[in-house]
Amino acid sequence: MSRTFSVLSANAREAAESLRRARLRTVLGLVGVMIGISSVIAMVSLGEIAREQARKQFEALGTDIVVVRKAVGSGAKAIDLPNALQVAAAVPSITEAAPRISGRGTFRFAGRKVGGGAVQGVTRSFASVNRLTLQEGRFISDLDADRYWCVVGAGVAEAMRGAGADRLAGSLLEVDEVLFTVVGVLDDKEESYALPVQVNANKSVFVPITTAQRIVPAPGVEVVIARSRAGVHYGTAVADIRSFFRKRAPGLGLDIVTAKELIARMEVQMGIFTLLLGAVGSISLIVGGIGIMNIMLVSVAERRAEIAIRRALGARQRDIRSQFLIESVILTIIGGMLGIALGLAATWTICRFTDWDFLISGLSVASGLGTAAAVGLFFGFQPAHQASRLDPIAGLQGK
Amino acid sequence: MLKLTGIRRSYRIGPVTTEILRGVDLEVHAGDLMSIMGPSGSGKTTLMNIVGLLDRPTSGACILDGRDVSGLRDDELSALRNRHIGFVFQSFHLLPQLTALENVCLPLVYRGAGRPEMRRHAQAILERVGMAERTGHRPDQLSGGQKQRVAIARALVGEPALLLADEPTGALDADTAGEVMALLRQLNAERGITILIITHDPSVAGQCARQTRIRDGRLFEPKAAAADGA
Ligand SMILES: Nc1ncnc2c1ncn2[C@@H]1O[C@H](COP(=O)(O)OP(=O)(O)OP(=O)(O)O)[C@@H](O)[C@H]1O
Ligand SMILES: [Mg+2]
User: N or C: which end of chain B has fewer CB within 10 A?
Assistant: First the structure.
């Protein structure tokens, strides 16, 4: 034990000294490892950040969202509106459900076009299910059935103001020749593309669902957006919804997507993505490692006499091996630390340009250091082993 | 303490096998001061490498302190070299990047000594060889004779029973060579260290109590050779 410690600490001191002496070579080795580790760090960090970004998008709207559609290719019938309206009350694992009927239209205010987009027939629960908030007035209520009242998205409202509307609530909006009275204006709502359903609130006009049935060409329920009860597994919610509709509308095929399921799927994909990026980074790391091996081989060849002298003085093969291994590991760990700094700096820069939130992934830093040490051990082993097997006599004779 | 019987060593280069040592018998007693002379290429260094456990003979037995070393593993040979044998090489073979003190410490590093203890020992032995003033110098800052003193200090620091010196004066001028020989003889007389000196120089050999010659792969010891007192 004490012999091992004595030899290792002497080896570490001399390894550091030897690296300091071979300055240019050390710097070249460091640069190789640094580039390798930094690309691994940058790649893995970017993967993590992308995953985090997607996760945040989900969380903005809640991970308990369940989206129900008629299955593509399922019989003729659409989801029946009365059934859709009862889902929340009849299925215990669902707290809220918001059916939607969709069409498109051109919007005019005071004879001027103020945009075009989705005309969405909705109920009161649509706002809470999709976390829509109002800057003015109120949302569609269940008492508005059949009325020509509407709630406009922030973008449409902006266009109306641009066209001269000073008070929006109460003003008239023409949707494809049909006049609606504005009862509310939504806050600006960022669209989340990670979700299984698009709301596109800013460019839309929301009307009572029964009114929509009269004015849009496809009056069937396009989608029901629901939220499952806290603590309920998404599989349970899906099964409950299916059995509800099986009773009410036999033969209706349903396509049900849950956010949790999507997240789970995304996690897998992001994992693969991160792995792939890591693999790309690893290639440059291997190149760096080969550089280290080369440097160590040169170092061993240059120091054959030294090795022979040490052997004559009583160094065992493993003492020589550890001396050179320590040298290569010190080299790669320093390169690794520099590489981590460089990789994080690169990640930070990319985040600034892409609007992503920069985060330092502990995993990538830890794995970066671990990888650096592993590279030092792996690529340093062959040179160190070669050094330990040198014939001391040949070394002493200068052969 | 050391007994060689029928040591043979041959080198094979391609298809040709050359036998350098052809049955060397030698018995070294504790406290001996012995020289080995012989023409260049006669196998003196080869013999020293075998005695120093750096090389294995093709055949023959090498018994160190009653123990046959032929069957030992490499690690065991390293440990034996470290404990029992000190080397002084013809061309010093100091490590250029280390100071005199650090060079002298090396055998103790491989013995597992603590750093303060190591430095204390090395300092003491450097003082003994008259190098107390130069412990922080690196080899390129030392003269030939000073380097050889450091090399001797390094060979002695582990208190080996046997000191092997391969032409210790070969690279030195006559005066310096005389000083180094005087040092070796003192160490032999004071500490009873067994010393084996390989040399070309008859005046060096003349200072040794036992003198041998190597010729045609064998070792001869003329009976009449007697050394003058120191
Ligand atoms: N590794 C080797 N392979 C082949 N031949 C070798 C090897 N080492 C030594 N020899 C040969 O063995 C012979 C003896 O070499 P050695 O070094 O023992 O001579 P020496 O007596 O020490 O000579 P010198 O006085 O010049 O140092 C030489 O002819 C040399 O060529
Ligand atoms: Mg020789």
Answer: C
